[in-house]
Specification:
mainly alpha; two-stranded parallel ribbon
Length: 158
C-alpha cells in the first residue's frame, strides 16, 4: 500500500475482498490513520469485486501459470512478469483493445490515432487487402470505472 499510495496518492476508499490481509488490524489501523474508508465485498459474493475477479481468472487460467512454484522468489518473479505483461502488453476487448496502462495513464486516444494512421498507410500501400476505408469499430472507452461509486456528497479522487 505504501508503494501504491506513493505513486498514485492516498485514495478516499479502498475496496477489497474479505481476505485476512485486508481485514487485519494493522491494515485497518493504517487506513484509519490515513483517513481512508474501507469497503469490503459481501461474504461469498464474487460480483462485488469484478475487476479483481476477472484479473484473478486471467491469472489462474493463463497457459503460463505453473502447477507449483519452486520457491517464494520464483513466485515473486512470475507475478512481477505477469503483472507487467497484463498491464502493459495485454490488450483487453472490454476497453477497446487497449492495455490497462494506456487507459489508466491517458494514452488511449494517442494509441487510437496511431492505429488509425497505421491502417490508413496500409490501405494506401495495399488497397486490395481491405474491403473498406473505415477503421474497425472499437468499443468506446469508459470515462469512469467504479466498484463503489461515491455519492454526490463524497469527493472523487482524480
Amino acid at each position: 500500500m505504501k508503494e501504491i499510495f506513493g505513486v498514485h496518492g492516498v485514495p478516499t476508499v479502498v475496496h477489497a475482498d474479505r481476505g485476512t490481509s485486508m481485514t487485519s488490524k494493522p491494515v485497518a489501523a493504517l487506513l484509519a490513520d490515513l483517513g481512508v474508508t474501507r469497503s469490503h465485498s459481501r461474504p461469498s459474493v464474487s460480483n462485488d469485486n469484478p475487476y479483481s475477479e476477472a484479473w484473478f481468472k486471467t491469472l489462474k487460467y493463463a497457459p503460463v501459470f505453473p502447477d507449483r512454484f519452486g520457491s517464494l522468489a520464483d513466485t515473486r518473479a512470475f507475478m512481477a512478469g505477469f503483472v507487467e505483461t497484463y498491464n502493459h502488453g495485454h490488450r483487453h476487448t472490454g476497453i477497446g483493445l487497449h492495455t490497462p496502462a494506456d487507459v489508466h495513464y491517458g494514452h488511449a486516444a494517442t494509441v487510437s490515432q496511431q492505429r488509425s494512421a497505421a491502417l490508413a498507410a496500409a490501405r494506401a500501400t495495399h488497397p486490395e487487402r481491405f474491403s473498406t476505408t473505415a477503421d474497425p469499430k472499437i468499443l468506446a472507452l469508459p470515462t469512469h470505472a467504479w466498484i463503489n461509486q461515491p455519492t454526490a456528497a463524497e469527493p472523487v479522487a482524480a
